[in-house]
Each structure stands twice: as C-alpha cells, then as structure tokens.
## 1
Amino acid sequence: MSTAAFDQLHRHQRETHVLASINSCLYWDQNTAMPLDGAAWRGEQLAWVAQQIHSRQTGARYGELLAAAEAGLGQLPPDDQADWQQNLALLRQQYERQCRLDPALVNALAGARARGYSLWQDARRNRDFSTFAPALEELIRLRLEQVRQLAEPRSPWETLAQPFEPDVGHQRLEELFAPLRQRLPALVERVRGRPRRAMPQWTTGQAVQRSLCEQLLACWGFDERRCVLASSPHPFSTNLGPRDFRITSRTLVQQPLSAFMATAHEWGHSLYDQGLPGQESPCFGWPLAAPTSMGVHESQSLFWENRVARGRAFSQVWSPRFAEAVGAAPWGDADGLWMAMNPLDPGLIRVEAGELSYCLHILLRYELETDLLEHNMPVAELPEHWCAHMARYLDITPDHVSEGCLQDVHWSEGLFGYFPSYALGHLISAQLTEAMEAEIGPVETHVAAGGESRLLSWLRRRVHPLGRRVNGEQLVQQVTGGSLSAAPFLRYLEAKLDRLLAVAPR
Amino acid sequence: MSTAAFDQLHRHQRETHVLASINSCLYWDQNTAMPLDGAAWRGEQLAWVAQQIHSRQTGARYGELLAAAEAGLGQLPPDDQADWQQNLALLRQQYERQCRLDPALVNALAGARARGYSLWQDARRNRDFSTFAPALEELIRLRLEQVRQLAEPRSPWETLAQPFEPDVGHQRLEELFAPLRQRLPALVERVRGRPRRAMPQWTTGQAVQRSLCEQLLACWGFDERRCVLASSPHPFSTNLGPRDFRITSRTLVQQPLSAFMATAHEWGHSLYDQGLPGQESPCFGWPLAAPTSMGVHESQSLFWENRVARGRAFSQVWSPRFAEAVGAAPWGDADGLWMAMNPLDPGLIRVEAGELSYCLHILLRYELETDLLEHNMPVAELPEHWCAHMARYLDITPDHVSEGCLQDVHWSEGLFGYFPSYALGHLISAQLTEAMEAEIGPVETHVAAGGESRLLSWLRRRVHPLGRRVNGEQLVQQVTGGSLSAAPFLRYLEAKLDRLLAVAPR
C-alpha cells in the first residue's frame, strides 16, 4: 500500500488485531490457568477490551479512515487493486452492520447473553426447562430486533447466520441437507440391525493420554517454538499472535480416546489458522487473511479427526503405539482400535455423536431454531418438538431436557445460525478430500506410510491460503471444480460403513 | 466518595487498574506458557498496553480529573479526607513526575533498555564486557537526563531509587548499611574457619519437587480458588486480579531445594499482596492500597523463606515429609536438612547467596551504581572495581565477567536504585520479626506446632493493611515502635550462626 490513507487504515487494522489477540490471551488464560475466583475481574478485563474493539470498529475516525482508503483505491498499483477493493468491501460491510445497531441493543444483548448462559447452567443442572425459557424468549426477541435494525434482504435466521457462513440461505441449505435428511436415518438404522464386535472397555490415566496426544502432534507437524498444548474443561483452538498457536484438550480417564480425538480435531483447526496468509502477506490483519467461514474451519478439524485419525490405516499404524503407551491392548487388534475410534450407535448427545448421526443432530437444531425465529414456535414447546425430531431422525428419546434441548450452550448465548456450519464442515471435508485424493492418491495410503505431511502440504497449497477471498461454497468450487454437495460425504460414509461392518465379529 | 469529580477519578483509576492487570496477564502467559516464536507479537501487545497506560496517566483529561478531585476534597466526609488527601498527593506526585519527562526521552529509554538487555545477554554468554559497555554508557546517560528532567531535590541515584523505596537517601542508607559493611565480612570469615558437617549431595525429579512445593503451599494457606502455582524460567509472583494470585517456581534437578525455597519466597510476596487493602476497601485501585515499598515487599518474601522455611523447627517438621516424598533421606537427620537449607559459604552469585553474605552482594552493587551515576566512574572500569569489592567483602574473585558484573539483569535494563531494597528487606524482616515474637512468641514455636497461620494472622493484622499509607521506614516505626536499624538483623544472624555452627560435625 502506498497512499497515506491506506497506511493509516493499515495501522488501525494492525492495532485492532493486536487488541483482538490480547482478548485471546485473556480467554486462553481464563480457560487454562485462571483460578475460579478470578472470574469476576476477568469479566471486567474482557469487557474493557471488547469495548475498545467495538469503539475502534464503529467510531467516526474509523469511518473516515475507511472512506479515505476507499477514495484512494485508484492510486494503488493496478495489480493490487482487486485484493484491496475486496478487503475494503468486507470492512465496509462489517462497519455498516455495526453502525446500524443501536448501542442500547448491543448492551441489552450482552446482558441477556450473560443471564441466558447463567440461567441455562441452572436449568441444565436442575433438568428444568422452565427456568431458562423466559431468558430464551428474551434472547429471541432481542435477536429479532437486531435483525430488524440490520435490515438485510434476508430472512431473520439467514441474517443471523451471516457472520458464520457468509451468503448462506435457507434454499441452499435445503438443497444440501435434503439428501442427509433422507439417507442418514436409513444408515443409522442399518447399523442398528447388524452384528458387530463387542466394544472393549478400558481406562487410561492422564499422563498416558497426554503422551499419546503429544506423539500425535509430533507426527502432524507440531512445532513447540510456535505451538502449545494445554488442558481446559472444553477443548478449543486459538491464536495469541501470528506465530503463537494454542490448542487444548481434556482428559477423561473413562474415555481414553476422547483427549486424543479432541487433540486431532483442535490441531486441525490450528493447522488451518497456521496456513492462512500470515505476517509476510500484505493482507495480514485484514479480512482477506481471515478464515473463510466456520464451515470451512470445521472441515479442516474434521479432516484430521475423521478422515485421518478415524481411518483404518491410522489404527494400523497407531495400535502398537497405543499398546506401548497403555501397556496393554484391551481393544485387541488394529481393527479393534479402529472400531473403538468409530462408535456407530446413535446417542442423545451431539458432541459424542459419530460421523453417521452427527449431521442429524445438526438438522434437528437447524430446523428448531428456524421455527423459533421465523415460524413463531413458542419457546415452551421446544422440549416437545426436540423429542419429536429426535425420534424421527434417530429413533431415540431423551430422558430429560438436559439430555435434550438444554444440552448445547449456543442458544443460551443467543447464538442462532451457527449449527449448520458444523454439518457443512462434514460436507466440505468430504468434497475437498475427494479432490485431494484425485490429485495425490488415497489419504489412507499416505497415513499408512507416515506421510501426513503430504496431506498437510496439499491443504496448505490448495485450501488454507484462500482465506476470506472466497466464501465456503466458492472455496469448494475453486478447489474441487464442482458445486458443494452432500454426495461426496454420503459416498464416503456408505463406503466406510461397509468396511466397518465387514470387520468380522469376534 | 460522594462528589462527581471523585467518582470520575475513581472510575478512571479502576480502569487503569484493569488495564494494568491485563498487562500482568500478558506477562504471566509470556513466562509460563507462550511458545518462543510468540515473543515478537507479545512485544507489540505489551507495547500497546504500556502506551495506553502511559497516555491514561499523563493525558490532559487525567490532569483535569485530578485537579477537580483535589478541588472537591473539602466536600468529602471529614473522616475520609486524610486518606483521600494522601491518595491524591501520591497520584499528583506520580503525575508530575510523568509529565516532566520528555516523551522523546521515554521512547529513547525504552529502546535503550531493549538494546541493553539484548546486548547484555550476548555479553554474558560470551563473557565479554566490551560488547555491553556502550549500551550501559548510553543507559547511564539517558537515566541522568531523566534525573535532570525530574529536577528533584535529591542526588541522581536517590532520584532513581524513589519509585522502589520512597524517601530513601544516601545518608540514611549509610547509617543502615555501615554496620553490615563492618560486621558481615567478619561473620563470613568466621564460617570459613569452622569445621562443619559434609553437605549431602542429592538430586530429585520434577514431580517430587512439585509435590513438596504443593505441600508447603497447602500448609501456608494456599487456596486454589484464587491462587495458581506454575513453572517459569525465573520464579516470580504476580496478581492478575484482586482475587487471582499467581506464583511460579522452577525445578532444578541438581538443586532439590531450589524450587522449594523459591516457592516459599514467592508465596511470601503473594501473601503480602493478598493482605493489601482489597476490593472491599474504598481505596482499592488507589495508591494507598498499593505495596509500601520494594523493601517491605521483599521483607515479606524473606520472612517466609528465611525466618520460617530456613528455621530449625521447620526442618524438624519437614525432614520426614521430605524423606517420604524423596523416598530416602540423603541429608541424614533433621539437622542435616537444616544445614542443607542454610548454605553458609559465600559464593560469587547473588541469587544463590545465603543470609550471611547476601547483603554484601548488595552493598557492592549499591556502591558501584552510585559511583557510575554520581562519581563519574568510567563504565570500562566496572569489571575491575567489581572484583576489588568482591575481594574486600567476600574474599573471592570471579573467574570472568559473567560471574562478575554481568551476572545481574538490572543494569542492562537501566534499573538503578533497586538493589538496596533487597538488603532493606532483610533488615525490615528481622525487625518486624522481633516485634512479632515479642507479641506472639517465637516463630519457631509456631512452626514446630504447625501454627504458621498465626504468623500470617499477625502480618495480616499489623503489616499488610498499611499499604502505601507509610513508606518502609514509617512502617517499621509504626509496627515496632523503633526506627529501622541493622541491629535486629545482625542479632538474628549471629544467633543463627552460633546454632548452625553448633550442629555437631559428623
């Protein structure tokens, strides 16, 4: 960038980036180290930073910087103009969205979120939906008011989904999800009726699980000069700076594969972040260097978790390593470990669901939140509709609301429009993997040869650098040459199911 | 506080406090978790926060808030006026000091500090003073310019010492330190000539050391809801919020008592911070709730490290605990552990020095930095004068500058005037302990009975709440009824030496 206006905006963006990364540090510490009683003060710190970021992103000075840069666009070298035009357009879009919102609404939402989260925790603990229902009603009311203020040419649910999955709408989701709705229940049913090996039960202590996670990361390119693995109540991935990547896992002694799979998943998120345009890119700190969408982000974590770690070749390689670390092999042979890594039976809890039923959990949530926001479904009826959907999709029924509509945190924080990204991640992952395999051969072949770095190279070349240049659908189109569809995912799932069910019962 | 001006300043102070605690979080993470490559970005984050704090503390708006509050002082309830007058006077003093400094000098100093630290690291690694000397000359030049701008009625060294030890001057230090200078070398000599038991050599792994540190903290009132122990390359203590206290230690396998003693020391610092006026005090976030001085802070860490953990009773209680944790007792009986905890022979390195020679290390530094700042001692002569002082006070000579004048970090960051606080800490600790023992009986009696909480109660009642209401000397006067002096420290040291030397050689 050569003009003064651009330089000023560039400095502004970089400072906002510094500030956002301070927020990440506070969040990281809160979830990995902070003692319990630190929470209230941490809240004040986070609120202060949030207020600074908000005022930077909505203030008159920022509007002026943005307008000046837009006016100076023509003075940039012609080759750079398309990128900077897109950067500025994305900033403009975000700026206008923020500016359209009444600060009183923003405050009211922050308060309602905090109350909603707290009441949800109580309600879930007590298995009592009625204590949470009024908070959810208030959150829906405020979010609909937000939709009214944003005044976009989209439906309310679509408007709220934009920050997670740009340009996504009901119609497209319907095209993508209809095949899932149609065929996944039959696959779930198919599993239910087939004999399989008995699943081994085993437990493993924290040190062993931690060691296996570290072995996994070492194989998958973890560099301790720029990466950290820690423990937290809920696994997550974050960046504290352009060369400072952090992930967490949690150890459940009764579920010896849980920390391992969570590590694979979060490391996938981190690898995507690490592959985005970095400090060496002129776009660093600008929208084009940001992640494409939540669905694409999820596709990257799911690739490493499901396509690599839950593959049969992986179990072949890792069964001896697990046996060495655990000191025994209660799972039996490598296929026993493979089966343990691929639980098939549908359960009530989304975060424990396998690849087969996961998207059904999402469909149910997507449909219910659309009903709440767009079809006047009374909040009081949510538990009943939840059970009905559950019965239809998965043929199981929660015993109580805490296993049902209170299991997820999202709605308690007024987060609507997010769930589909989880399902899109599965679809995108499958479609990208088909393209990858067409170019460099089967994932499993590379895994069997310890060549995961070749998989990463492909992602680093074809997927990661695109950033926000494209939305999720455009990314798939650009990388695979075809439109996003559920077909690759269903193909993959059916083939994997055949192979899993073929593992002879013992 | 009832007036609007006070309320506004109060909010300003609280926000500055929030911001300062964000800085602490960044520092904590940097030293406990951050990967190496995160350093550059962390530098940007820290610089941003520092700039925000600086502009809050020197801006015109702050000056107006301060002046308005000063003008409104008379409207406060009469009972509150003395406290708020002192709070405002301390803020005013700090504000005027900041305002007198040319921002160009502040920037130049920040740059010179960073360069000095970096060159010092190189010089120390290469045992080559000449690479660091020009940076030290520049730091001295800039600090003398700072003294000129501050224009206080004090000598240059005294001016620079104010932030650490308010109101301290050469004359008073001379009165306090002369007895040390006179009598400590003789005590060191006395040790050298006496037969003692052979010191046991042993090593202990990280987990065992960590477990012993945790046992120690549990005995000394550690509350995991508000406190954290972590590892870092250099032990330190910090607060990330009013109910969020952190300390670190480091494990040296070859020095099995090092982590333990560092934990005792840092926990003493933390206990002092925890006992300062907290959120329930109207002065929270104001100067009166801040620590008295660095010397007083050090007196608290030294109390727990030296008076409690290095006491004979402590070894009696802890020798079985150590044996249980280590799985053996290479130190022999409890007195063997006591001797291991009290190395007497003088060494070259300050941070490894025992109680006997520690203050001599400080005298040497205090004298040399005074010579550098006030008596035109050429920087090039520092190594030679260092050796001469070392020979005079401790009768030993460094083999190279990295064991000599390059061993401490302070001067490389332009930090002059800090060292005496370390020695004052020993004096204050001894004098406070005499007062404590006169009131509640011998420290050792409480330790023998597992009654450390009674020691803490006394400190919580008599010492901690005073905060910046008093300077270090006033605190001693107020608590003990006598002027600060070296006599209690020398009395204590001589008595302890008698007891240590009386432990029969085996």
Note: The two ends of chain A are 66 Å apart (CA to CA).
## 2
Amino acid sequence: MPRKPNTELRRQQIVDGLLRTIAAQGYTGATIQAIASASGLAPGLVHYHFRDKREILVTLVEQLGAYAASRFQARAAVAANARERLRAYIDARLAYGSDANPDAVAAWVMIGAEAVREPDVREIYQRAVRQEIALIRRLLRAYLLECGKRVHKLDAFAAGLLAFVEGVFVLASNARTLVPTGFAADMAAAWVERYVAAELPVAGHAVAGKKTVRQKSKGGQR
Amino acid sequence: MPRKPNTELRRQQIVDGLLRTIAAQGYTGATIQAIASASGLAPGLVHYHFRDKREILVTLVEQLGAYAASRFQARAAVAANARERLRAYIDARLAYGSDANPDAVAAWVMIGAEAVREPDVREIYQRAVRQEIALIRRLLRAYLLECGKRVHKLDAFAAGLLAFVEGVFVLASNARTLVPTGFAADMAAAWVERYVAAELPVAGHAVAGKKTVRQKSKGGQR
C-alpha cells in the first residue's frame, strides 16, 4: 500500500495547528509563527504548503464541511423517504453518536464569531452557510411535496432551522450543563413536523386515501 | 441638574473600549494597554477604575443584560396576558425596532465564542444564560397555565427557544444577507403557538367554554 504523501500529512498538521491556534487565541492573533508553533513545524514549512493564513482557513472549513456532510450521508443512505432524509439531517447535526465531534462544533462556533469581525473569514463562512441553507431547502421541499403540502415560506423555515442548529452549537460549546442533554434533535424534528402539518395541502392532492380540499391552515398564528 | 460623576463617564469609556477591543481582536488579545488605547485613556486610568480585565467584562455583560431587559420590559409593560408577555419577549429579542442594536448583538456573539475557550468569560456568560433560561421558563409556564395546558418539557423547550435566539444572533451578525429579513420573530411565535397547542390540556380544565377531556396530543411526534 502506498504511503500517504508527505505533503498531505504536513498540510493536515498545519490545518490542525490553525484550529488549535484559533481555539487558543482566535484567528486575528493566529500569525504564521503561532500556527507553525502549534503544528510543531518551522514557519518556512507553513509558507511552503500554504500561500497564506486564509488558504489554511479555507482548508479547515472544507474539512469541517466534509465531516458534516459525511455524518449526514451515513444517515441519509438508510433513509427510505423524504421524511427520513430530513430526520437524517437533523440527527446528523444535532444528535450525539459515535461520530460526534465536539471540537468540530466548537471550532465552527469560533469561526462564526471570527466571521463577525474578519471579512476574509466571513466570506468563507458565508459560502458554507449558503450550501447548508440550500441543503435544508432541498430536504424540506422534498418532504412538503411528499406530504402533498404546498411549498411555502421555504426560505424562512430553512433559515430558522439553520439558526436553531447554530444556536444549539453555541450552547453545546459554552453552556452544555445548562441545557437538557440531547434535547435538540427531537425538538427540531417535532418543530418540522408541526410546520409541515400546518401547511396547506396542494388542492386536489390525495392524502391518506381521500381527496382534500383547499382549507385555511390552523397552526399558524397571524 | 447634577453632572454625571466623572467616574461613571470614565468607566463607560473603558467598557466601550473593551467592546471595541473584543470586536477587533478578541478577549484573549485584549490587554489593558489595548483597552486603554481603544478608550483613549492612559493604562493607569484603566487600572484605577477596574481591578482587572475580568471586571470590565463583567460590567460589559451586565450592560448588555440591562439593554436586553429594558427592551423586554418596554414591550411587556403593555402586554395584557401571558401570551402577549411571551410575544413581548420574542419581539424584544428577535424583532427589529427603534431600539435595535446590532453592535450589542455582535458583541454577544463574540462573547459567546470567547466563552468556549476562556473559563473567565464562560463563567460570566453562563450566569447570563442561566437568567435568560429562567425568564423564558417563567413566561412559557405562565402561558401554558393560561391556556389550561399541562406544564411539560419546559426545560427542553426553554433551551430550544434560547438556542433559536442565539442562532439568529449568529446569522444576523455574520450572514445577514443570506437569511430573509425579519423572519425570526414570527417564526419563533408560530413555533411557540404550535408547541402549546400540541400540549395536553389539564384534565377538566375549561377551554373555550367547554370542558376538555384528557386526550392524546397529535402535534408532537414522540
């Protein structure tokens, strides 16, 4: 079996070093010197493998995205329908499991805060947020269609579900003892069920064996 | 009218200086020198007015808490019942208004991220989170009782509502253009309405003029 190229190992050491540096002192204070020191490498090697700090951050965010995607795909692979695929997403983001990684969650929270002040970080963060919203929209849309419901307020609900996930990440990282253990996934799933239940059926769509007529939703409040 | 004491003005300058310093480089990198420089004061004056950096942070978090409390109280003062008081809370945290302060929201997001790595910050942050959860619990409990519903899963729902608020703060601070404008308050209010609607009524409680019997909830999913 061929050895993993040395370049890959070095690059991974440097990305891990950036993560440790952000965790210890934030992105702004993460000089190449500090990243090198946290990686156990000489600064020259960092410069050899990455053009600049921003490129290391892009790689780190890509890795966090790949980790999040693999959690989802492992669960979605055994989902039988759109409802289960949406639940697979919720569990991938919010339920614990053998593949849970609190460090990745904490890193994401810290990168989100760095994005407030650092335009470079914000651009990279927003790219990830855009992808996540697109994924949630696809999953919600498929579930609404599967239920014979009209597709409505999808952008707002996708943003709301993402906000909930981001907020759970914040509280899980800095106030874990103050919230009930494992409350988040079931709550998000129940929220989605109620949102879909409250949506209007598509006129003439067969639900549970009989035709439904267009009727006023009762679940909303305004 | 007596002038505001000079001490108060100086302390406020220093607290504002800490906020600017956190915004620019994080709490870890906020030396007394940096805070003094951001306040336009000599470092000796910072040391004169505050024992240490932690004490400045405590004051800043107290001020953010007082700002959040005043937003809520202004709206709760005109609320006629528990339902409107809960809506007043949601609007105070999530709706825009003439008293909206994006800087305070961004500061809170950054302090939340600092709390992940800094035990001092975490302790102060958690104190504020504990108070916020207690407030949400009281408001939710009063609304459930007003509706004749049993008080159930209050801790989980309070944590969920707080997570949603925190997540909206994150997205409002670093990805505002990617989420629909002003989506959050109505969504949280609808979520609360559905949660309360799905709860079991207290046996024998009169709702809308007739006695209800204990029945299985249909809205939840587990």
Note: The beta strands of chain B are 206-207, 210-211.
